[in-house]
TrEMBL record:
Keywords (A to Z) from UniProt: NAD, Oxidoreductase
Name of the protein this chain belongs to: Unannotated protein
Aldehyde dehydrogenase domain span: 18-473
InterPro entries per the UniProt record, alphabetical: Ald_DH/histidinol_DH, Ald_DH_C, Ald_DH_CS_GLU, Ald_DH_N, Aldehyde_DH_dom
Length: 485
């Protein structure tokens, strides 16, 4: 049977199995053509609470499942992403507007996340603590319980599985709320993979929905830990709600990432890196290069090289044509990108390339000669726009890069010695020298500072164990201890 046969998931959510949701249904729409691709079930707030309660019941048995069996299921899930790569790619292209190589990258990382997670069940889960009392004293880590995972639409598979896989491997149950715009290729697909991998019923639940269902799966009494990836505005709400209900919240939020181009750089290579950083997946990535900070000695040449690329990169429907850029996710988001570009031009920014759209296809855009107070420089655009500013001194470059509420990713291109001199002064969770700002691997501790998140990390055993387990102090002595009472 096909992984994503519509008969399985049409008009359904997943609570212990495929069921109709109390929130009705919603069309799945192609962002490229507007065509209806299918229809998903939507959850109600009551469904969200039920999913969490059922997950809590299933979690007890799952946590007690031998590590070898948990590891085998994670390995199987990783293999299945490979087996069903073509089918999942097709959905990530049609539903999310991904070009095929981007979809392939998502599937490759999803496989890697499951394989990495398969090492977690047998990982050391604590330590022996010295004690002044005549007892043995240990710290042991236990699963947190039920973990809620909320994901965005842009890299929907990676940003879901990077939390789902380690949380499940470590003995938790997961309630997953995908973005409803990508709930087949990065929602139903994940449910089906774990079904086929043999995960016991109830350990993984999926409730499709919007902000109301998102808030319900944060506040549901059975949920202990929340892993949220999305905008800073929604992240603040999730953080507030989590604090009210005393939930541990891991928040991975927006970015406005700087790429510093040093004097003496190879301009052709730098422009290739800058173009990829700003336009990959239409600039809809938290790590997108949102600010190009370019030394005056190479500025004109760099802008010209970026304009040349913008004017030649093909934009269109990735399901039918070989293109470099596909569509923006929907009309609202397209209108938002257009309004930031227009406002910046009104503020005196120079539109050097692009700046317009047809349907949801936005042309790769270059905005040059910007000032730090202009909209395209200050705001996270989430569209294919390369905003550029000129600098003279290294101190200026550092000040420009740090002048942002966000702190997710920074790239520095050029002489490594010069880059090292400024690297330690940059406020950022991720720093690449001689690479642009967009990158991810399953084993690295991914995360940002400032308005990009709470400094939490996903990826690699150390960060994942910290994120999805609780510590317990455990002591043992041969006889009951004597007390003065
Ligand atoms: P969004 O915050 O609107 O939505 C993200 C998810 O949160 C969706 O599933 C949405 O339904 C849900 N949601 C929205 N409001 C909620 C609420 N009040 N309570 C609970 N859930 C809620 O984000 P978006 O605009 O769709 O996605 C793009 C944003 O995500 C950008 O800001 C981008 O930088 C950020 N992002 C961050 C990372 C990272 O790892 N730091 C990765 C990718 C995207």
């Amino acid at each position: 049977m096909a992984l994503l046969d519509p008969k399985i998931w049409t008009d359904k959510i997943y609570i212990n199995g495929w069921v109709a949701g109390g929130g009705g249904t919603r069309d799945v729409v192609s962002p490229a053509t507007g065509e209806k691709l299918g229809s998903i079930g939507m959850a109600s707030v009551a469904d969200a609470n039920k999913a969490a309660a059922e997950a809590a019941k299933a979690q007890v048995g799952w946590a007690a499942t031998p590590p070898e069996q948990r590891a085998a299921i994670m390995r199987k899930a990783g293999e299945l992403f490979g087996t069903y790569a073509a089918e999942i790619t097709d959905w990530l292209v049609k539903e999310a507007g991904s070009i095929p190589p981007k979809a392939g990258l998502e599937i490759h990382v999803a496989e890697g996340e499951c394989f990495e997670a398969s090492s977690l069940p047998s990982h050391p889960m604590g330590s022996v603590l010295p004690s002044n009392d005549p007892h043995w004293s240990f710290m042991r880590r236990r699963p947190a319980g039920v973990v809620t995972v909320i994901a965005p639409f842009n890299f929907p598979l990676i940003l879901s599985i990077r939390s789902i896989a380690p949380a499940i491997a470590l003995g938790n149950a997961v309630v997953f709320k995908p973005d409803p715009r990508t709930a087949v290729g990065a929602g139903a697909a994940i449910v089906r993979i774990f079904e086929e991998a043999g995960l016991p019923a109830g350990v993984f639940q999926m409730v499709n929905g919007g902000a109301d269902v998102g808030e319900a799966v944060v506040s549901a009494p059975d949920v202990r830990v929340v892993s949220f990836t999305g905008s800073t505005a929604a992240g603040r709400k999730v953080g507030e709600l989590g604090a009210q209900h005393l939930k541990r919240t891991h928040l991975e939020l927006g970015g406005n990432n700087a790429l510093i181009i040093l004097p003496g750089v190879d301009v052709a290579k730098a422009a290739s890196a800058g173009a990829f950083g700003s336009w990959m997946h239409q600039g809809q990535i938290c790590m997108t290069t949102g600010r190009h900070i370019v030394h005056e000695s190479v500025y004109d040449e760099y802008v010209a090289a970026l304009v040349e690329k913008a004017n030649h990169l093909p934009v269109g429907n990735p399901a039918t044509d070989q293109v470099a850029l596909g569509p923006i996710i929907d009309a609202n988001q397209t209108a938002k990108v257009q309004s930031i570009v227009d406002e910046t031009v009104k503020q005196g920014g120079k539109l050097a390339a692009g700046g317009t759209h047809e349907g949801n296809f936005f042309k790769p855009t270059v905005l040059a000669d910007l000032k730090p107070e202009m909209s395209a420089w200050k705001d996270e655009i989430f569209g294919p726009v390369a905003p550029i500013i000129k600098f003279s001194t290294m101190d200026e470059a550092v000040a420009l890069a740090n002048n942002s509420e966000y702190g997710l990713s920074v790239g520095i291109l050029g002489d490594v010695g010069e880059a090292m001199k400024i690297a330690d002064q940059l406020n950022t969770g991720i720093l690449h020298i001689n690479e642009q700002t967009v990158a991810d691997e399953a084993n690295i501790p991914f995360g940002g500072v400032g308005a990009s998140g709470t400094g939490s990390r996903f990826g690699g055993a150390e960060a994942n164990i910290e994120a999805f387990t609780e510590q317990q102090w455990l002591t043992v002595r041969p006889d009951i201890a004597p007390y003065p009472f």
